[in-house]
Design a protein that fits this description.
Blueprint (H helix, E strand, L loop, with lengths): L5 H16 L22 H22 L4 E2 L5 E6 L13 H15 L4 E8 L6 H21 L7 E7 L10 H7 L1 E8 L4
Parallel strand pairs: 3-4
Antiparallel strand pairs: 1-2, 2-5, 3-5
Helix pairs in contact: 2-3, 3-4
Length: about 190
Amino acid sequence: MRTIRPLRQGVIVLTLLAMTGCATLTGHDEPPAGISATDGIPSTETESVWPGTRADLAERLFAATQAAPRTLSDGALLLRLPAADGFETNSSTPTTNLREALDRIAEILNQHPDTTILIVGHTDSIGSETYNLGLSIDRAEAVLEHLRQRGVSLLRLSADGRGEADPIADNATPEGRATNRRVEFLIGPIETD
């Protein structure tokens, strides 16, 4: 019988942990499937500092956007901004109102350089899945670029789009479709080893 070296065992264990961390999460207060702002195993230092940082971010982001951030089960902070008025129809260029909100968000994020930010774009179900996925990615990348231009380090930013895949409201109604058009920010601590 062949034995597995300790290093290989560690790699196998970490791979299994990573795979279980990518399990689909359900509920409206969870990040989209397979997406987490806090991937990895947090260090003791991060665990002790992050709750205070998260509370400060939540308070300041709410004051700046009037959107109530939520703490997710993995400890990340989720901020949802409606995109119904943030982008023109079929466009990834942020409107003036969204740019102003992003300016305020960038200022807050710049005061917390120990965080990572995953920006996720979502659309309603009008149009093809392929088109909506592309549009959601373009919108997330436009938001990322706006934050980068306002001084948020690109090393802290990432973008993804989910298209119409993760609705939080009924796409059969105009109100539901407006709710589903959104940009989400998943904010977590920078992991240190």
